[in-house]
Write a structure and sequence with these properties.
Helices cover 47% and strands 7% of the residues. It has 203 residues and is of the alpha+beta class. The chain has 2 domains: 79 residues, no CATH class; 119 residues, no CATH class. Strand 2 and strand 3 form a beta hairpin. The two termini are 21 Å apart. Helix 1 packs antiparallel against helix 3 and helix 1 packs antiparallel against helix 4.
Length: 203
């Protein structure tokens, strides 16, 4: 589902850009065409001074249109900011991942009469299979344990694999943490976000 969301985001922005450029180019050609028809007598008088391609637009007109298209393409590229769009897509994936993990944990709790997956408690831990190097004390995360918490076995019924950060995560070190509070509220966080929005869900 997360991959579909990313694809739809890019298709949406791509379609908007295409339609905008197409509309601008069509408008320019329309103006050139009208100018060509209304000023036919002038073009005939200056026939010797202009180079025409198969009786169509002059070379100068075509170069002008190409220049406008190139300018629009550059402006659109800068306005789109591809790097930021990729970052937004990755954050969308992170949001989907933490929601997926929390939903699986919640379903486990329901099916097991209120019990949490093994190791899920009031100590925040990074999810993964690694036995060391799992401290995650950056972003919104406060996981100080050196080992990662592997809940893939408990959640196998609900998740084929535990999701991990699309840029910096792995199955060994997902860059997602989990913690519960004294009221039994479970929180899953994304540590390595790229935008200003905190990616964290609780239930």
């Amino acid at each position: 589902k997360a991959r579909y969301k990313i694809v739809l985001i890019f298709l949406y922005h791509g379609a908007r850009i295409f339609l905008d450029i197409f509309g601008q180019v069509f408008f320019v050609f329309y103006l050139c065409y009208n100018n060509h028809n209304s000023a036919g007598s002038i073009f005939m008088r200056n026939k010797k001074e202009k180079l025409r391609l198969n009786g169509g637009f002059t070379l100068v007109e075509l170069l002008l249109v190409i220049g406008i298209i190139a300018t629009l393409a550059v402006v659109t590229f800068v306005a789109l900011d591809p790097a930021q769009r990729f970052a937004d897509a990755r954050d969308a994936r992170r949001t989907s991942d933490v929601e997926t993990i929390l939903s699986a944990v919640h379903q486990y709790v329901i099916d097991n009469k209120g019990d949490f997956p093994s190791g899920v408690d009031e100590t925040e831990k990074q999810l993964g299979t690694a036995s060391s190097g799992c401290e995650a004390t950056y972003g919104e995360c406060s996981a100080n344990t050196s080992y990662c918490l592997d809940i893939s076995g408990d959640l196998a019924k609900y998740l084929k694999t535990i999701p991990y950060d699309p840029q910096t995560g792995s199955a060994a070190s997902t860059q997602y943490t989990i913690v519960s509070d004294s009221n039994g509220i479970v929180t899953v966080k994304a540590c390595d976000t790229e935008g200003e929005t905190v990616i964290s869900v609780s239930r």
